[in-house]
Specification:
By secondary structure, the chain is α+β, with helices and mostly antiparallel strands. It is built from two helices and eleven strands; from the N terminus they run ααβββββββββββ. Keywords: Membrane, Transmembrane, Transmembrane helix.
């Protein structure tokens, strides 16, 4: 004689299992995606809290997004994100200690094998435009009351920056 034992789940147990599976699927599909700011916060040391309201993201090209953020002490950082990972970052200036006419930095983006990119802040209100290595491929945006400038094409070193007045007179040169 064979004993066939047939077990079945109670309706409450079946409902609990189905609800658990649906909740797990929902949690996976709708989990919060990391933001560029959260990636920067986790991937860098910055001694002061970052001000979320100061975040600005600029699309340089199809692969590069240049992000800016200021901390509570006035430090302005730039950073790029690639595949949800911090690609590059650096400090541009502290807005509470501005003595130079232009603060700038260059960075290599991992998404591009074509060189280094320029980012800077113009603090001298008389400088209307700049050229980097005699190229005029510079874009401008307002960032917290300052003119942020960045290159749309890679730049070579050494970096020579020239600042021009509204009348196109040379009023600044870093070399």
């Amino acid at each position: 004689m064979s004993n066939n034992v047939r077990t079945s789940l109670s309706p409450a147990m079946s409902l609990t299992i189905i609800a658990s599976i649906l909740l797990l699927i929902f949690a996976i599909l709708f989990r919060p995606q990391p933001t560029a700011l959260s990636i920067f916060e986790k991937g860098t040391y910055h001694p002061y809290p970052l001000m979320e309201e100061s975040v600005k993201s600029i699309n340089i090209d199809e692969k590069i997004n240049l992000n800016l953020v200021t901390d509570t002490s006035g430090n302005i950082y730039f950073y790029t994100i690639y595949n949800e990972q911090l690609s590059n970052y650096g400090l541009i200036a502290n807005i509470n200690d501005l003595e130079e006419e232009i603060y700038w930095n260059i960075y290599t983006d991992r998404t591009s094998s074509s060189g280094r990119w320029f980012v800077g802040i113009i603090t001298n209100k008389d400088i209307e435009t700049i050229s980097v290595n005699n190229q005029n491929n510079i874009q401008y945006v307002n960032y917290n009351g300052y003119t942020l400038s960045y290159s749309t094409e890679p730049v070579e070193e050494p970096v020579v920056i020239k600042g021009f007045s509204n009348e196109n007179n040379l009023i600044y040169e870093n070399h």
